[in-house]
Amino acid sequence: MRNIEIKAKIDNPELKISRIVQLTKDNGIIMKQHDIFFKVAEGRLKLRKFETIVKNIFLKMFFSLTDGSGELIYYKRSNVFGPKLCDYEKVALDENACSGIANILIESNGSVGIVKKTRKVYMIDQTRVHIDDVEGLGNFLELEVILNDDQDIESGEKIAHDLMSKLDIKSEDLIANAYIDLLSKSIE
């Protein structure tokens, strides 16, 4: 699978959310995610555990759905500013598989670290839009333009640039690295 991604540091997540909701007419969903990163020769390998928080604006209630499920995700992406290609594979895991695979990978490969975040997820056409509150780092916006099989990289980059403009994302706000890299740098 392929997508075109950007990541940007944001100071005012509520302003970005307001613009996103204007575009989507949707309040999105809120998820808590814990990503365990493992040592690999190339690319990145992470096991993501989910907790979904569903906000019902009509009932003014929140529901938390925790079933222990997750995903194992392997991806390759350059650490460059601006829209970049990400090749990835992922598999859905139930609670038992999540725990078992995490233990096996920690023992066999070793862990690089853990990223904990609260993610608000929206869809704008073929683009996933994330507003992330990352523990130890702050607030970020991510765009993931999901490429169709017959779609070239340039058309995905154009979609990303158009959304960057609509969401007022400036080039100086762009981040090249993954959250795990930023957390590692903040510890050093």
Automatic annotation (TrEMBL):
Classification via InterPro entries: Adenylyl_cyclase_CyaB (IPR008173), CYTH-like_dom_sf (IPR033469), CYTH_domain (IPR023577)
GO terms assigned for molecular function: pyrophosphatase activity
SUPFAM superfamilies (alphabetical): CYTH-like phosphatases
Domain CYTH: 1-185
Coiled-coil annotated spans: none
Protein name: CYTH domain-containing protein
Organism listed in the record: Apis cerana cerana (Oriental honeybee)
